[in-house]
Design goal:
Shape: globular
Structural class: mainly alpha
Helix content: 55-70%
Number of helices: 6
Largest sheet: none
């Protein structure tokens, strides 16, 4: 996702570049600003929605007679995250109609610089992933007797159909909502 202006419209603003003073210095933060209260909502809503949907899953498991439904609900976290993303998308759709910005602009690549942005994202993923793995190897023994204990907490068995579905819907829904919410919508109201 690029944040420097190119041709077309500014990512997140829906404003044609011809209406900007200096095309080369335009950023996502320029253009119509979101209402402050909605920026605050955007910043906390995913955490609250995730908790809400996790409780819903636990209640559904309780209703089906699952023993220890709260612990059993932990396996279903990819679905609670996906449900959170659906509500996030609906929030963005609602705000795009209430505020002057184009929802489709949140998903449009900004040119020039897409190639550079993709390479930077890949490099960041490799370095960040390496640091995350190294950090967990170093820090896990400080918190858990077994460094793999965290994997057992996060990755729990699901029925095959649910695991396959989660592998598809979790990353797709996160990609379509999390970055557009924080960097396309909320960031404009913070800068």
């Amino acid at each position: 996702v690029g944040f420097t202006a190119g041709r077309g419209t500014l990512m997140g603003s829906g404003i044609p570049h011809g209406e900007q003073d200096d095309v080369n210095s335009t950023t996502v933060s320029e253009g119509p600003q979101p209402h402050g209260g909605f920026v605050t909502i955007a910043l906390v809503m995913r955490l609250l929605l995730f908790a809400f949907f996790q409780v819903v899953v636990a209640l559904l498991l309780l209703a089906t007679g699952t023993p220890d439904p709260w612990s059993a609900s932990a396996a279903w976290w990819p679905f609670t995250a996906a449900a959170t993303s659906v509500v996030t998308f609906l929030f963005l759709l609602w705000r795009s109609r209430a505020e002057p910005f184009s929802l489709s602009a949140l998903y449009s690549p900004v040119r020039p610089g897409v190639g550079r942005d993709v390479l930077l994202a890949l490099a960041t993923a490799v370095v960040g992933g390496g640091l995350a793995v190294a950090g967990s190897i170093v820090l896990a023994p400080a918190f858990f007797a077994d460094p793999l204990a965290t994997n057992a907490l996060l990755i729990q068995p699901l029925p095959r159909w649910a695991a396959v579905t989660a592998i598809v819907i979790f990353p797709v829904t996160i990609a379509l909502t999390e970055l557009p919410l924080y960097f396309g919508y909320a960031q404009r109201g913070l800068l």
